[in-house]
């Protein structure tokens, strides 16, 4: 079973992930993980932190000579900003006086609920771990997981489809390769140059007024076989698992598959993806993909299409009303250095989070201890489908 945990604070020395259940024999391209980490750092609208960091992963276990050994893989990303924090993130009780406590919770962040729940007297104890900086570790894990799927032709791509009130529309008939090329060059990861200009102008306007912006990203995954996930038990349904994974990303507020919430407003005859059969490829086909690639919690073999809505970042440079947790007096929320808009980065996070969850489902279906064994299982299954 593939599983992982992350640890680390936003301004602590480093972020760490331990991934267990990685089978042996997969070639891991270290530079590929660093590439995804650098993609996560990009995007118009990010704050000062990204100028300080140059996220690079150090792999300290589970890989020898570029190949997985089957042992747990430990991934470490250093926080370069740690050195600027002096003793404020120290573990030594003698350094407590060095840190001025944060006492004015930001509406929208984990600040207040986390501080009350854990009975803390400094909101920093919550915000350091709740920060979206943690996604650095998750992107490293998802990027590693992506490299388990790549040899089987499974490919995930995410891009931005809306920021604030501006929707970005991809060119009609664009292939995934086209979308990758166009969105990778875009400053806000959209496939629509006109929308890009409007979004940049809106980010500038928000920055000028001390405000922030959210948006929507779309993840598309091609090359999936029919049959990942299962209808037989609630916690094995793939769409449910993907939704949980995606909603656990900081600032995520909603997930929809295929036509999503619109499915509740149309008739069944319009919605459901009619079935055909291609006798040459010896596979079942669909006339549409409104489901977004899952039925009954199982992949249909059509591309997976999932959208995630992200709320605007909760640190506002023109802060909202709050209350000081010590004095209970009305106050404005604390200001942490932050981003105006991190939705382009959220797309990369969603892409890698989905890759991880799909790799987990893939290994559940075909899983074994080595790549050779997995490939044999996978190819045998494809042949079984063809001769069905
Ligand atoms: C982030 C690092 C953080 C923030 C942001 C995401 O760095 P810092 O707090 O030092 O500026 O830029 O985190 C948040 C928006 C948040 O609310 O926690 C990153 O690496 O992505």
Fourth-level CATH superfamily: Chorismate synthase AroC
Shape: globular
Poorly predicted regions: none
- Per DSSP, the total helix count is 11
Distance between the amino and carboxyl termini? 28 Å
Structural class: alpha+beta
Structural summary, described in words:
It is a single chain. A hairpin with a 2-residue loop joins β7 (155-163) and β8. This protein is α+β, with helices and mostly antiparallel strands. The protein has helices at residues 30-41, 49-52, 111-118, 124-130, 135-149, 176-185, 193-208, 238-247, 268-271, 343-366, 371-386, and strands at residues 3-7, 14-20, 57-61, 63-64, 67-68, 73-78, 155-163, 166-167, 215-222, 252-257, 275-278, 283-286, 294-295, 298-299, 304-310, 321-323, 330-332. The protein has a single domain (3-386), classed as Chorismate synthase AroC (Chorismate synthase, AroC fold), CATH 3.60.150. Ligand EPS binds next to α5. Ligand EPS is lined by residues 10, 47, 49, 81, 131-133, 135-136, 313, 315, 336-339, 342.
